[in-house]
Amino acid sequence: MDDSQPLAISAIQHFAYCPRQFALIHLEQAWADNRYTVEGLLLHSRVDEGEPEQRGNLRYERAVLITSQQLGLNGKMDLLEIETSYSPPKLTPVEYKRGKPKVQDWDRLQLCAQALCLEEMRNLDISAGALWYWQTRHREVVTFSDDLRQATLDAIRGAKEILLKGQTPAPTSHTKRCKACSLVDQCQPEVVRSDRSTFYVQELFKE
Ligand code: SF4
User: Fold this and answer.
1) How far apart are the CA of 206 and the centre of ligand 1, in A?
2) For ligand 1, is residue 16 a contact (CB within 6 Å)?
3) Does the pLDDT value for residue 1 go beyond 60?
4) Confidence check: pLDDT of 98 > 90
5) Is the pTM of this model over 0.85?
6) Which CATH architecture has domain 7-204?
7) What are the domain boundaries of the chain?
8) Is the CB of 193 under 6 A from ligand 1?
């Protein structure tokens, strides 16, 4: 992969969920839908259709294109809330998700990457964003702490390393994730896990 080619922000979530899933999608161009991905697509197409709106001091912009030259990222955020009573205006990125809040940081990393792009584009600090979960109708406020920022930078670096090396990692040990993964048929995690020769070949190519 060309190092100057930007990484899609949505790919960060794939990497955080499973580096092998990320590689199958973004390196090998494999894709398959399951119930979760179809529901996610429908939700996002509905969200993206909305027009910009002003309610008092709050402006809502939808399907906002964002990029970061420094991090080599680009993508689209579902919703940007702009509180115009502040100077400079207070920006809050909001990402819609089909499921429910998660213990793991997959969704938070994606949101934080959006904030990093916005900070660079608008030259201001963004302290928090929000994840809105369709299944539970729950809005989770996400503070962009130093730890979350660092974890996001680490995920961006890890994802780019896979693309640069051009090697698909071994299956994750989290078998629960495989059950919900739309790529389980292409990945065949149990076959690969039991085939020790795959690990042997990967060890050979490890730096
Ligand atoms: S099936 Fe499991 S190991 Fe394979 S890509 Fe999906 S989550 Fe990763």
Assistant:
1) 21
2) no
3) no
4) no
5) yes
6) Alpha-Beta Complex (3.90)
7) 7-204
8) no
What pLDDT, in 10s, does the model give residues 153-176?
999 999 999 999 999 999 988 788
Asked whether the beta carbons of 57 and 85 are under 8 A apart, the reply is: yes
Mean pLDDT of the 99-122 span:
95
Residue nearest to atom 3 of ligand 1 (CA): 171
Cα angle: 49, vertex 53, 57; to 5 degrees = 150
Of all protein residues, the one whose alpha carbon is nearest to atom 7 of ligand 1 is: 178
Q: What is the pLDDT of residues 114-140, one digit of tens each?
A: 999 999 999 999 999 999 998 899 999
**Whether the CB of 172 sits within 6 Å of ligand 1:** yes
Query: 131 alpha carbon to ligand 1 midpoint, in Å?
Result: 24
Length of the chain: 207
Q: Does residue 143 contact residue 131 with C-beta atoms inside 8 Å?
A: no
Percentage of the chain with pLDDT > 70?
A: 92
Round to whole Å and give the CA distance between 167 and 158.
12
Distance 186 CA to ligand 1 centre (A): 9
| Ligand 1 atom closest to residue 184's alpha carbon, by position in its atom list | 1
Whose alpha carbon is nearest atom 2 of ligand 1? 178
If you write DSSP's letter for every residue of 39-59 in order, what string do you get? Answer: HHHHHHHHHHTPPPEEETTEE
